[in-house]
Design brief:
Blueprint: E1 2-8, H1 12-23, E2 32-36, E3 51-52, H2 59-79, E4 85-86, E5 90-92, H3 99-114, E6 120-123, H4 124-130, E7 141-145, E8 149-150, H5 153-166, E9 170-173, E10 177-183, E11 186-192, E12 195-204, H6 210-214, E13 224-234, E14 249-250, H7 254-257, E15 261-263, E16 266-268, H8 281-284, E17 294-297, E18 302-307, E19 312-317, E20 324-326, H9 338-351, E21 360-370, E22 377-380, E23 387-391, H10 397-412, H11 422-425
Parallel strand pairs: 1-2, 1-12, 2-9, 4-14, 5-17, 12-23
Antiparallel strand pairs: 3-8, 5-7, 6-7, 10-11, 11-12, 13-19, 13-20, 13-21, 15-16, 17-18, 18-19, 22-23
Helix pairs in contact: 1-5, 1-10, 2-10
Length: about 425
């Protein structure tokens, strides 16, 4: 069997690469094939918070997040397929309480605005409107992204896989890659559980499996494996019986819905010229309701997002220094520690006291990869022509996947890379 391009790994990054590569390829003459050892969505990406924030201190990452958010938001218009996109808005607080911390946040916002990111500085009064009861100082500020939000990871993976197949990509689940085949100093194919597949280029996007595939070729990359724990709390907002859970583009945030205040169970829409609500209750009930936008709090080290599709809120760590490294990704302990659950409840209640009486309804652990310098591995291994790597995006896989897919497809197919700084993220910085 032969393919033009083989992509190893069926997480959101691999699926995005397959989608963008297939869009540029003739499915008959130069087929794109994605191989996943399990099933699409079975890995850690299915547990992701899938927050789509553009708040990055790096210009390149900020631009990638901007383009990725635009791509996700445009999918419904182009394809009418649901990603479970919730346009809740997202607020990022400073990393500390000093004036220097506030200056850094303002400088980051100004930099992102030069990139065309929709983001503004909001002060304490506005923050309290967005998060009733939040505990902040009167001089507090935050970075507010009205168009940001989050995805339902399972819906997004399903929709993007379907789009990739519609573009002609071959998606083979239950097909593990045992080794890469090298002939005359070049990667020329993969050996799978179903036999050999020849190709011109291989892209390794398998996350925790990347290091194991590369090591036999003498490509030693210091990929770290890290476990992240998530706590789920019961939603403080009840959805109406009529709510359309199958609706795709869910606009629940203040600017997204045109809101001017709070409804007991979400945002309220503005009044029209006659003093009545612009939309009837029946129309309003077709939108999912949320208690508040996404909140990222670097100072206390957590983020919280509403997940109305599952009637819960998700709490996760913010700041990779607090994550635990894992020696063997195949045998890591997936249990959630009591220490994490106690910590998560403590920081959330301290910032948002409304959660004091809200009980946990579950917890999960996700394994992800990262590099010592905090930057992902995106690009070609020039010492072995035909070999490319896309991994170590840490917790930002969904946030950046469309840009990663675009840039990697361009790179593999010999086009100029317009999606990200190929030199900054090149795996050759470690080789």
């Amino acid at each position: 069997m032969r393919a033009r391009t083989v992509i190893v790994g069926g997480g959101v990054v691999g699926i995005s690469i397959a989608l963008h590569a297939a869009r540029r390829s003739d499915p008959l003459k130069e087929p794109v094939m994605l191989l996943e050892s399990k099933t699409i969505g079975e890995g850690s990406d299915a547990l992701s918070g899938a927050v789509l924030s553009q708040y990055f201190a790096s210009r390149d990452a900020g631009g990638m997040a901007r383009d990725s958010l635009r791509y996700y938001r445009g999918i419904e218009e182009r394809t009418a397929r649901s990603l479970g996109y919730l346009a809740s808005g997202a607020l990022t607080l400073p990393s500390g309480s000093t004036e220097a911390d506030r200056v850094r946040l303002r400088e980051t916002v100004e930099m992102l605005r030069t990139l065309g990111v929709e983001i503004d500085i909001v002060e304490a009064a506005r923050i309290r409107e967005l998060f009733p009861g939040i505990q902040i100082e009167d001089g507090a500020i935050g970075a507010w992204e009205p168009s940001a939000g989050c995805l339902d990871p399972n819906r997004a993976l399903t929709a993007m896989t379907t789009l990739a197949r519609n573009r002609g990509a071959i998606i083979r689940e239950g097909t593990g890659v045992d080794r890469l085949i090298v002939e005359e100093g070049r990667v020329v194919g993969v050996e799978t559980s179903d036999g050999r597949i020849d190709c011109d280029d291989v892209v390794i996007a398998s996350g925790s499996g990347t290091r194991k595939l590369l090591a036999p070729l003498g490509v030693e990359l210091p990929i770290e494996f890290v476990r992240a724990e998530y706590s789920y709390m019961a939603s403080t907002v009840e959805q109406p019986d009529e709510v359309a859970l199958e609706s795709s583009m869910v606009t629940a945030g203040p600017e997204a819905s045109g809101a001017t205040g709070w409804y007991p169970g979400g945002f309220v829409r503005p009044a029209d010229a006659d003093g009545d609500h612009a939309d009837s209750f029946e129309q309003e009930s077709q939108a999912l309701r949320i208690a508040h936008p996404v909140l990222t709090d670097p100072d206390k080290g957590f983020y919280i997002r509403c997940d109305p599709l599952n009637s819960r809120v998700t709490v996760g760590r913010r700041g990779e220094a607090s994550f635990r490294t894992v020696d063997d990704p195949d045998t890591f302990d997936p249990s959630v520690s009591r220490e994490f659950l106690a910590w998560a409840r403590g920081v959330v209640e301290e910032r948002l006291p409304k959660y004091e009486d809200v009980h946990e309804i579950g917890a999960e652990t996700r394994l992800f990869t990262r590099m010592p310098d905090g930057e992902p591995l995106l690009g070609s291994v020039t010492s072995l022509p035909g070999l490319h790597v896309a991994c170590a995006l840490s917790t930002k896989g969904f946030t950046l996947a469309p840009s990663v897919g675009e840039g990697m497809a361009q790179m593999v197919l010999g086009e100029p890379n317009s999606a990200f700084d190929a030199e900054l993220y090149s795996p050759m910085r470690y080789l």
